[in-house]
UniProtKB/TrEMBL annotation, chain B:
Molecular function (Gene Ontology), one example: proton-transporting ATP synthase activity, rotational mechanism
Gene3D superfamilies linked: ATP synthase, F0 complex, subunit A
Domain of life: Bacteria
Name the UniProt record assigns to this protein: ATP synthase subunit a
HAMAP family in alphabetical order: ATP_synth_a_bact
Highest classification ranks of the organism: Bacteria, Bacillati, Actinomycetota, Actinomycetes, Micrococcales
Length: 220, 271
């Protein structure tokens, strides 16, 4: 094509120059230029740019979405941490309260038990005392009759006379006991060796001593 | 192809006249390449290559952006790099983040179309920058011209658009002069310079390359001294190729940048 064109220009320079000024547009080229940009614009604006912009938008959304998700996760973690801390605190307070309560309860239980034990001990002591008293009374009563009988038997044997007469016997015994209680009869006179401490004892002690005296007398 | 053909043509022409005849410097006629028909309605080689460039660009762009995903493939990555240059480097920087997206398709179309057609000036087998024919830059400028006036009038209204050409805060007596200057700028200077800058660069660049290559080829037909002279001439031609590659890219960039700037100016709230 150039092959054809160039010699022709060489041959007919003047004609070509007159016809084709470089600044005068060749009308078909101008029109075709509009067609070119029109077609390319249509292709670019309908097929190329939307695809790329969509990809950009998706990319932006993906990045922002990822960041949002991360932020959300962090916030959730923070919230969970706070919740755990709150729960831990609560649990600690609760544990303290329970411990305190248990301590108080334990103390009250101990006090109660102590009181109970004390009461029980008192009760036992009381009943023991009462039993001792009862036994003592019983012993006194039995001693009184036994000592009477024994002394009567002993006396009758020693005296050799029968003191069967009830009235006399009774009168004798009563007199003897009255003497005994009055302290006119000393245990030394009857027993082998009695402690001098008995001298200062009260009447009850004297009665008890009498029992022992009686027994030792019986043994003798 | 054309260059070699041209060189061969020149040589044959020269040889046809007489062995070692005179050298014809390339004239603007080298841009007149009718393929079908002749005269006013001839279909030229530049039209064919321009059509091919549109088809190639369309197919390549559709193929590279069809499966656009969040994680780009290698092809999409390349496409995005190219697209982002026009989208972010030109449209967003000039027009601003608020309105730029609407104009990205136009600016990106202009940039890609001009760039490919310019580079065809050094890419075999074309070796002819389409924009070296004034008709194509005029067509593109016409589009830009209509667009920036249209959006300006749409935003400000006819009266407001003309009023907005004059900056605020000027003393009253200077306003008519400024208005007159701005009117010339908006309606004559801008489209004229936009078209002529692109055309002139491509035209002159192609002329220079053809000059060096045809001169080198011519020297080869002459004596020994001239044959030696052809070596630096061809080297110079090669340097011009590299230089032209840069100029062609730059012109595509400047054209798109200025278009974006005119659109931004028409959209601006004040002057």
């Amino acid at each position: 094509m150039q092959f054809i064109a160039t010699p022709s220009t060489v041959v007919s320079l003047a004609a070509a120059e007159g016809e084709k000024m470089p600044l005068i547009p060749h009308i078909p080229e101008l029109i075709f230029g509009l067609v070119m940009i029109g077609i390319l614009y249509w292709v670019v604006s309908t097929k190329v740019v939307p695809n790329l912009e969509k990809a950009y938008e998706e990319r932006r959304a993906a990045i922002e979405g990822g960041m949002e998700q991360a932020e959300e996760a962090q916030a959730q973690a923070q919230a969970a941490l706070q919740q755990y801390e709150a729960q831990l605190h609560e649990a600690r307070t609760e544990a303290n309260a329970i411990r305190e309560e248990a301590r108080a309860e334990g103390a009250s239980i101990v006090t109660e038990l102590r009181e109970k034990a004390q009461a029980e001990a008192n009760r036992i002591t009381e009943s023991a005392k009462r039993q001792i008293e009862a036994e003592r009374q019983q012993a006194v009563v039995s001693l009184r009759s036994e000592v009477g009988a024994l002394s009567t038997t002993l006396a009758s044997r020693i005296v050799g006379e029968s003191l069967e007469d009830d009235v006399r016997q009774k009168g004798m015994i009563d007199r003897f006991l009255a003497d005994l209680e009055a302290g006119q009869i000393r245990p030394e006179k009857v027993g082998v060796a009695a402690a001098p401490a008995t001298e200062s004892t009260d009447a009850e002690q004297g009665v008890l001593d009498l029992g022992t005296e009686g027994n030792s007398g019986q043994d003798a | 192809m054309i260059l070699t053909a041209l060189a061969a043509g020149t040589t044959t022409a020269v040889v046809a006249e007489e062995g070692g005849g005179e050298f014809h410097t390339p004239s603007p006629d080298i841009f007149w390449l009718p393929l079908i028909g002749d005269g006013q309605w001839a279909i030229t080689e530049q039209m064919v290559w321009g059509g091919v460039s549109v088809i190639v660009l369309s197919i390549a762009m559709i193929a590279l952006s069809k499966n656009a995903a969040i994680v780009p493939s290698k092809g999409q990555w390349l496409m995005e790099g190219f697209y982002n240059f026009a989208r972010n480097g030109i449209a967003r920087d000039m027009i601003g983040t608020k309105h730029f997206l609407k104009f990205v398709p136009l600016l990106f179309s202009l940039f890609s179309l001009i760039l490919l057609n310019n580079w065809m000036g050094i890419i075999p087998p074309v070796m002819n920058p389409t924009m070296g024919k004034i008709g194509f830059p005029i067509a593109l400028v016409l589009v830009v011209y209509v667009v920036y006036h249209w959006i300006g009038i749409k935003k400000h209204g006819v009266k407001g658009y003309f009023a907005h050409m004059v900056p605020d805060g000027l003393p009253g007596w200077i306003k008519p002069a400024i208005f007159f200057l701005e009117l010339i700028t908006y309606f004559i200077t801008r489209p004229l310079t936009l078209a002529l800058r692109l055309f002139g660069n491509m035209f002159a660049g192609h002329m220079l390359i053809v000059l060096f290559v045809s001169a080198g080829a011519y020297f080869l037909t002459q004596g020994v001294v001239f044959k030696l002279l052809s070596v630096p001439t061809f080297i110079m031609a090669a340097v011009m190729f590299v230089f032209e590659a840069l100029v062609q890219f730059l012109q595509a960039y400047v054209f798109t940048l200025l278009s974006a700037s005119y659109i931004a100016g028409a959209l601006a709230d004040d002057h």
